[in-house]
């Protein structure tokens, strides 16, 4: 397939572009800067200049492609207002891409997060939460999946809180960044809450599988580690950075504080069985050993 990818130079997107090219697909990547365009070209993809808010560019990219993978998201989420703005931009982009593919039967794979369920690991059958800091994303993804009834083979790959590679990325990466700034490897609450995780290259393999074969209107879990204790994550970070490990207020982590404090394990049993996905790369705790002081 000739695949249009947004967010193709991020942690997940870089791995997705490489995965697609390795498996015989060609890639048209949205590039918001000359540097992004150069990165895509060096990887073997064709750049299409434009940003996530350039809806005409999104329509043009979708029109040129046999399938679309939507990964782009604003990098500015340092405040609740910035996070909400990023979610609004993502919502409009998804709606634009979906509308461009109506009646084509082409695949459109988007990204969302794994839900949380009290007392157990969430599964692919659980709905996304419609309350909380990222509730608007749940609405946008649900609306997109509904386009399967209008001739778009939509699917959503639900990502865990940490998508990592070389010790970087996701919630664990934000926790590490906070530790470097504060001099404390902090964690919210008692640290017993669990975060699911996946290596970026394993996640990329699932995006490719969804693009190639996922039925319309379906959701899949890119979860390799069902749930690592946040205390264990902070302990590795503290040891690698030479910092003390202790509980800190939720507010330390900005708008993500309430989410950081939640117990949110997640299962990918159905995804593995139905799509034949099998993670092969290092776990989060193994990957964090790559951190340098």
Automatic annotation (TrEMBL):
Domain of life per record: Bacteria
Gene3D superfamilies per the UniProt record, alphabetical: NAD(P)-binding Rossmann-like Domain (3.40.50.720)
Region annotation Disordered: where it falls in the sequence: 264-293
Protein's name in the database: SDR family oxidoreductase
All copies of domain NAD-dependent epimerase/dehydratase, residue ranges: 3-213
